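Incident log, support desk, overnight shift.

02:14 A customer reports that sequence design results differ from what the structure should imply. Their input is reproduced verbatim below. On-call engineer (initials T.W.) acknowledged and began investigating.
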């Protein structure tokens, strides 16, 4: 039996690719410790994204691989998820009590953006992250309904300065709908809307969040520009349907975020296929493969493709979106995959950011 060393353990780890980082644990810098005690090996890894439902299975895979190494009698792999604050737009200071802000946006309305934002927030929370959601769709706020918060509920005020976000399904929720009457339309001009958005973000007492999901209004107007100029956004998720008109507007959304230096983490395709509940026939009502084409065109990832499902709509309307209502369902698992991909993409975006050139001064 040959002696085990660190290089041999790292060589085994290097053969396995994290499906979300698309890197092996060694190349991704996830290895925190490798302790070898004779024929016993103890490995500690650290993931930079929320993956509470994934890490135990991943640890078991790696542990089995190490135990197959010549000279190893037993192995133990422990994985921790530690979400750090990641870089946002240059010259915009980070928020003290929010590590990463994720904007969920769409070029047009009616593509399921708010439903995606709600389920993304819930899925991140299920992965063990501290999560909040901000309903920035000032003209048509819907997150209060989706999270089952009763009409007329108002947030408490702390120290006459801070709004205390409401809690629902393990997520902190804040919306302009909590400050106005549900039947009163927001007849505001652009500067008023932008000011209200900034106040909601900066004057809400978020409680040390790993991720704040912002449900953006559709389009590429004042609110999007305010967000880009004033709020440290780690990345944006673009929601679309396969329909050509939706894809046209989604392209504008991708281009807008790129112009304001906010990374596009990827694309979510909603209503990709309809499966008849009676006969099981699958039909692409809004076209086929549009989200994938958009992702390929802009060199981003297709994060998720979701069906046109009555269940998704009913559960969101009922105040308990799919990720909370049926967490073990096939659709909920798609949202969990989406959450892990979003978290991992934020980590990768920072790793891929170009380093600043060093400046040297010589006497020549």
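02:41 Re-run completed on a clean worker. Output:
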């Amino acid at each position: 039996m040959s002696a085990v060393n660190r290089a041999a353990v790292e060589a085994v780890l290097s053969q396995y690719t994290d499906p979300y980082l698309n890197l092996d644990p060694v190349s991704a810098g996830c290895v925190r410790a490798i302790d070898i005690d004779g024929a016993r090996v103890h490995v500690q890894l650290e993931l930079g994204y929320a993956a509470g439902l994934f890490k135990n299975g991943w640890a078991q895979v790696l542990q089995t691989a190490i135990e197959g190494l010549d000279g190893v009698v037993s192995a133990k792999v422990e994985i921790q998820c530690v979400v750090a604050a990641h870089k946002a737009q240059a010259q915009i200071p980070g928020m003290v009590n929010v590590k990463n802000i994720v904007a969920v946006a769409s070029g047009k309305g009616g593509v399921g953006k708010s439903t995606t934002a709600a389920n993304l927030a819930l899925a991140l929370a299920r992965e063990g992250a501290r999560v909040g959601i901000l309903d920035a769709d000032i003209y048509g706020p819907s997150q209060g309904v989706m999270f089952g918060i009763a009409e007329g509920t108002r947030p408490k005020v702390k120290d006459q300065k801070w709004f205390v976000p409401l809690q629902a399904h393990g997520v902190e929720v804040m919306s302009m709908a909590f400050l106005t009457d549900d039947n009163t339309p927001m007849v505001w001009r652009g500067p008023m809307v932008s000011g209200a958005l900034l106040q909601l973000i900066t004057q809400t007492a978020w409680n040390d969040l790993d991720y704040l999901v912002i449900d953006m209004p559709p389009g590429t107007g004042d609110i999007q520009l305010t967000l880009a100029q004033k709020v440290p956004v780690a990345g944006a998720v673009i929601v679309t349907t396969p329909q050509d008109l939706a894809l046209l507007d989604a392209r504008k959304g991708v281009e807008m975020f790129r112009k304001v230096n906010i990374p596009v983490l990827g694309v979510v395709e909603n209503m990709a296929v309809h499966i008849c509940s009676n006969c099981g026939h699958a039909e692409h009502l809004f076209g086929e493969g549009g989200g994938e084409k958009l992702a390929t065109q802009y060199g981003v990832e297709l994060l998720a493709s979701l069906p046109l499902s009555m269940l998704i709509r009913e559960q969101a309307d009922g105040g308990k979106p799919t990720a909370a209502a049926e967490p073990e369902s096939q659709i909920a698992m798609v949202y969990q995959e989406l959450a892990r991909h979003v978290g991992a993409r934020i980590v990768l975006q920072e790793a891929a950011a170009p380093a600043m050139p060093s400046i040297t001064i010589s006497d020549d």
